[in-house]
């Protein structure tokens, strides 16, 4: 009896969480798809100028506002490298693609809290730039 | 009644904003709105199993994990064990990042530290099934070094965010 009671309680609690977050998740899902439909992939190839510092910032910014499967970021990143874009910029791009979520920010704010979401995204953005620089330096030594 | 975040719950307000975005897009260019809608439905089907997994885990955690157990593994003062659990969990988790927010929120209510949530979310950048593709595009050395840096920065970012949240 006690066993079934705890199951029922857990189920109701989970159902409560589900009802609370489902509008946010559906909204985020539709927002991500909207951005993918609106943003042409060509835009990624047009924003890089050849300046490593500016390209790294542009890469990190575009990665942050993009969403979807990381496979897409690898493909675009690989093509950018072939076009002569620096490894630092490409690394910042593929890393912020998965670690920073501007488009998912409303969901993160609502579910995990405003301060947490903003702090986490800013720290992830800065660290992506740092990792990009460190990787380029490390690979130069290998 | 005017619809504002004050008189309607924030989550529904967000959903309405997205619906308005689609409506405006369909007025400007119906083909873009249609493409976005088709992509959304495909994404819905794609994330549905992961979403179910997420809520099954919340259900199981509501049954089997109480505050004591959570604090023991990913709470305060657990040290390296907590970092390892969060980073391995992040690496193993699949699907979009936002699917995992409800579970992490649930675990935080039970005592999971913010720093471990940050580590979990950052280490998700390591995608084991996609490693061969990354090696193909960027090479083995790049992939290995990046993986190592992501693990290190999962911890660094966790510590920074935790310190910041404790201060404000």
Write a structural description:
The complex is a heterodimer of chains A (142) and B (168). Chain A has 142 residues and is an all-alpha fold. Chain A has one domain. Chain A has 7 helices and no strands. In chain A, helix 5 packs antiparallel against helix 7 and helix 6 packs across helix 7. The longest helix of chain A has 37 residues. With 168 residues, chain B is mainly α. Chain B has 2 domains: 64 residues, no CATH class; 102 residues, no CATH class. Helix content of chain B is 77%, strand content 0%. Chain B has 8 helices and no strands. Chain B is globular and about 55 Å long. The N terminus of chain B is likely disordered. Chains A and B meet through helix 1, helix 4, helix 5, helix 6 and helix 7 of A and helix 1, helix 2, helix 5, helix 6 and helix 7 of B.
Structural class of chain B comes to: mainly alpha
What global shape of chain B is seen?
globular
Biggest contact = A-B, 62 and 63 residues
Give the amount of beta strand of chain B, in percent.
Answer: under 5%
Figure out the total of helices of chain B: 8
Write down the Rg of chain B. Answer: 20 Å
């Amino acid at each position: 009896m006690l066993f079934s009671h705890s199951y029922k309680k857990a189920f109701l609690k989970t159902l409560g969480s589900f009802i609370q977050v489902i509008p946010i998740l559906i909204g985020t899902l539709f927002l991500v798809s909207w951005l993918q439909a609106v943003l042409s992939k060509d835009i990624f190839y047009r924003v890089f100028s050849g300046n490593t510092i500016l390209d790294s910032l542009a890469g990190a910014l575009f990665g942050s506002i993009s969403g979807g499967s990381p496979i897409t970021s690898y493909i675009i990143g690989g093509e950018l490298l072939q076009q002569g874009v620096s490894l630092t910029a490409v690394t910042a791009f593929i890393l912020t693609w998965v670690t920073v979520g501007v488009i998912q920010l409303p969901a993160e704010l609502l579910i995990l809290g405003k301060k947490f979401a903003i702090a986490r995204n800013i720290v992830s953005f800065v660290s992506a730039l740092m990792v990009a620089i460190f990787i380029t330096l490390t690979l130069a030594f290998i | 009644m005017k619809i504002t975040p004050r008189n309607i719950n924030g989550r529904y307000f967000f959903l309405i904003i997205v619906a308005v975005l689609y409506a405006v897009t369909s007025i400007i260019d119906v083909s873009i709105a249609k493409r976005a809608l088709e992509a959304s439905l495909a994404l819905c089907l794609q994330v549905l199993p992961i979403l179910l997994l997420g809520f099954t885990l919340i259900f199981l955690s509501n049954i089997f994990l109480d505050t004591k157990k959570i604090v023991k593994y990913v709470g305060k003062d657990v040290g390296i064990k907590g970092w390892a659990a969060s980073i391995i969990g992040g690496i193993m988790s699949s699907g979009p990042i936002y699917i995992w927010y409800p579970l992490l929120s649930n675990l935080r209510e039970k005592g999971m530290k913010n720093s471990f949530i940050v580590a979990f979310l950052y280490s998700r950048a390591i995608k084991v099934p996609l490693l061969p593709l990354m090696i193909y595009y960027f090479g083995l050395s790049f992939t290995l070094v990046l993986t190592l840096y992501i693990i290190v920065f999962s911890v660094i970012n966790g510590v920074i965010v935790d310190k910041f949240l404790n201060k404000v």
